[in-house]
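Recall that a protein's primary structure is simply its ordered list of amino acids. Everything else, from secondary elements to tertiary packing, is in principle encoded there. The following example makes that idea concrete.
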Amino acid sequence: MIEMPYIDLQKCNGCGICVSVCNCHAIIMKKGKAFIVETDGCGWCALCEIVCPEGAIICPFDIVVEG
């Protein structure tokens, strides 16, 4: 099983930027915090980790570009 990104709720400020960039709809807002939806919809693009201003999202995988 591939691990989903992880959100540190202590760091999450609820800005919702990660939700807005997630084209897979794998992140939702709940009670003012971002949550990962356990789904096969995650494309593992790591955009959520990149845009999080608080560094609250950790993707436990590496993106490898072969060319």
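The chain has a mean pLDDT of 89. The chain has two helices and four strands.
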